[in-house]
Amino acid sequence: MRPVLNLEEVSSFIGPFHIVQGVSLAVYAGEAVVILGRNGAGKTTTLRTIMGLLPLKGGKIELGGTSLAGLPTHRIARYGLGYVPEDCVVFNMLTVEENLQLAMHVRDSETRGRLAYALDLFPDLKVAYRRFAANLSGGQRQMLAIARTLINDNKIILIDEPSKGLAPIIVDRVAEALIEVKKRSTLILVEQNFALACAVGDRYYILDSGKSVKSGIVRELELDEEMQNKYLSVGA
User: Fold this and answer.
1) What pLDDT digit, counting tens, does each position of 90-137 carry?
2) What number of other Cβ atoms are within 10 A of residue 11's Cβ?
3) What CATH number is attached to the domain comprising 36?
4) What is the CB-side half-sphere exposure of residue 17 using CA atoms within 13 A?
5) Quick check: is 99 in a domain?
6) How many CB atoms sit inside 10 A of residue 3's CB?
7) Which residues pair with 32 in a beta bridge?
8) Which domain holds residue 23?
9) SS3 content of the chain, % helix, strand, coil (to 5)
10) How far, in Å, CA of 94 to CA of 110, rounded?
């Protein structure tokens, strides 16, 4: 079976710094893949390179066999890739409603159906629908950022650190929502919260010093304390 997204020996820089130095991974339709590793391992940079926010300097990135190399971010998004960056980008001076409307590629009955689905998934956003994003809590802002990717026909959604800065009870709610989301979309998740990664993920890739070094089934990694301690510092 061909992967929907395939990376082979991907290399990219931030300024003069060679951050991603050989990342290979394959993502198949309908699964949730988690990218794990210590801080500075290249996880966020890998997502940004997939989305064209950083130039690909080596290797291949293919979506369904089509190369994404050199394409601008808006073109990549039109291929059905949604992206939620770790800094939870929403427009503070717009309402929840306006933030969601602004994210729409088209406005038709299917989009309205996906909007209704997103609001059902995150009831907080229904309550705050006409509230300015600047007045939302951190958890609500994260919900809004994820919801913005759900209202378009995104086949793959890349989410960077969805639990960052959130209270444990909100992390649990985000995890429950992502489990529902993966019934409709393929997920690629960068996450430091190991419990959330295990709750949502099916397979994992571990990055170390900008390279993919290990991969496998999340449930097996959950039982492998030696691997966790070597690459993830779980519980440290």
Assistant:
1) 999 999 999 999 998 888 899 999 999 999 999 999 999 999 999 999
2) 17
3) 3.40.50.300
4) 8
5) no
6) 18
7) 187
8) 5-87+154-231
9) 40, 25, 35
10) 23
